Inverse folding.
């Protein structure tokens, strides 16, 4: 019996900036249709890991495969091809200020010349409706939207081309608890509707518990624990326990000046 | 030996910057001739760089021409050579002051705005977002601006030339009492196509320098607001220095044989 090929497969991924080692041999598999959340403190390399998969940063060593296709040291054409499978929700939404909301949402479709502008606008309106926003929002500029609305528009942009894999970078950071819950619900609903594989990074445990099938914890450049969401409270890992309960005392020492 | 260390460090840093800038330039230029092209972006940039710079360039040309006529009269009157004022004004404006002053003024206006816009896009992850949406940032952000600079600068300088000569005419005729038709005749008789053409070639080169410096410093900006501020300053300062440097080189090339 052959095991199904993971959607994302990382083996021994290392990344350093000068003398600072950020990723020190990451091994991780994300199966098709699975929602995996990477947790970890600030500065532990979660975003770097995501950027290595997206090809925004080049891993120094190791292998990253998406549907069996190698990402590390791949050419621009391969990256472009792989990126078509991706949707990405950035931490700060990263909407383009110079374009109205509807053009932001359908930017990828227009860039790939898959549709004309009229069709792109119709798709943008449909995707905005999927994240609970009316067509009037499409005509606004991103600067006219609140933080929560910007996140929803960014989510609409991430799903505009029906991606196979969606990445969420700190999807609830900077939002009030109610808006954070709205975004979490949308992530769960949309990944199910699109049937996408999801890889998220966060340090918000409420969000992680809600959107993840499986959670992995990144610490000191390595995945120190990975398992089903329901097992996280009984992980038996003192690092995980300290993190999920938000305790100052424990094996994780924060760099705080006296 | 220790005093040699900082000198060596600065020199190596300079070489590294030259190398990075050269690679950036090659990449940007190569993308201007490879599809996909973004005509809407190019046109929008041409309006921003060209049309909205007209008041600045027009006023600069007008006052440069007026001052030149006045200063030339003050000096030439000592040698009873007032008749050469029309020639001095038209040659100085078309060969030198038109392109250089317009270049410096637009470097302040456009170089700063490009660096600030692209720098903000960098620090807010908008450039990363472009990559994830299957759009090459060099192709979408840098190449259209280079093309717009290359095309619009010669037109701006041509307009600055005409307004500058008109400024000289106003002072010569209405303040210094020159005969209008004689002044215009002198201007026309001594002007050669080479004088105007050399200024326009300089303008095209300055257009590329200003947009390239704005894009390069913005694209490579780091950190937050401080990094963007530094990129803006560096873009304007480096563009101004390079304009004056290339002005000499181009003048040497055009008029070495004369």
């Amino acid at each position: 019996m052959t095991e199904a090929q993971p959607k994302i497969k990382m083996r021994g991924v290392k990344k350093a900036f000068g003398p600072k080692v950020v990723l020190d041999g990451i091994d991780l598999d994300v199966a098709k249709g699975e929602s995996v959340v990477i947790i970890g403190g600030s500065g532990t390399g979660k975003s770097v890991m995501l950027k290595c998969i997206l090809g925004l940063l080049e891993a120094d060593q190791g292998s990253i495969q998406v549907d069996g296709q190698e990402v590390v040291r791949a050419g621009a054409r391969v990256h472009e091809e792989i990126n078509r499978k991706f949707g990405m929700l950035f931490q700060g939404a990263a909407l383009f200020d110079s374009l109205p909301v509807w053009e932001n949402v359908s930017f990828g479709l227009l860039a790939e010349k898959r549709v004309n502008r009229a069709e792109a606008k119709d798709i943008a309106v449909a995707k905005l409706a999927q994240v609970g926003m009316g067509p009037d929002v499409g005509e606004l500029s991103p600067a006219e939207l609140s933080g929560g609305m910007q996140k929803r528009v960014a989510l609409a942009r991430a799903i505009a081309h029906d991606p196979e894999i969606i990445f969420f970078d700190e999807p609830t950071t900077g939002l009030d608890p109610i808006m954070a819950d709205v975004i979490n619900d949308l992530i769960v609903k949309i990944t199910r509707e699109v049937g996408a594989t999801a890889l998220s990074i966060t340090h918000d445990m409420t969000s992680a518990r809600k959107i993840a099938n499986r959670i992995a914890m990144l610490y000191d450049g390595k995945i120190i624990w990975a398992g089903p969401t329901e097992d996280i409270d009984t992980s038996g890992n003192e690092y995980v326990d300290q993190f999920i309960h938000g305790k100052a005392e424990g094996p994780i020492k924060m760099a705080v000046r006296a | 030996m220790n005093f040699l260390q900082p000198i060596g460090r600065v020199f190596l840093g300079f070489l590294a910057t030259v190398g990075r800038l050269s690679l950036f330039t090659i990449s940007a230029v190569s993308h201007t001739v490879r599809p996909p092209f973004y005509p809407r972006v190019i046109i929008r940039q041409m309006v921003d760089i060209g049309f909205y710079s007209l008041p600045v360039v027009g006023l600069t040309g007008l006052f440069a021409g007026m001052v030149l006529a006045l200063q030339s009269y003050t000096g030439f009157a000592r040698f009873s050579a007032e008749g050469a004022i029309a020639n001095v004004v038209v040659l100085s404006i078309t060969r030198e002051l038109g392109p250089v002053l317009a270049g410096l003024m637009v470097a302040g206006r456009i170089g700063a705005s490009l660096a600030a816009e692209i720098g903000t896009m960098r620090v807010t992850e908008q450039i990363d977002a472009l990559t994830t949406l299957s759009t090459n940032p060099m192709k979408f952000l840098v190449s259209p601006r280079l093309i717009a600079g290359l095309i619009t600068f010669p037109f701006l300088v041509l307009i600055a030339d005409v307004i500058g000569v008109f400024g000289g005419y106003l002072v010569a005729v209405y303040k210094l009492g020159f005969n209008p038709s004689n002044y215009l005749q002198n201007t026309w008789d001594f002007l050669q196509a080479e004088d105007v053409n050399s200024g326009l070639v300089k303008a095209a080169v300055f257009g590329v320098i200003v947009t390239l410096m704005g894009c390069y410093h913005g694209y490579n900006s780091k950190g937050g607001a401080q990094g963007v501020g530094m990129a803006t300053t560096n873009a304007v300062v480096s563009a101004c220095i390079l304009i004056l440097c290339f002005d000499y080189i181009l003048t040497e090339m055009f008029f070495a044989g004369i």
Observations:
- Chain A has a mean pLDDT of 88.
- The domain at 1-80+196-258 of chain A is CATH 3.40.50.300 (Rossmann fold).
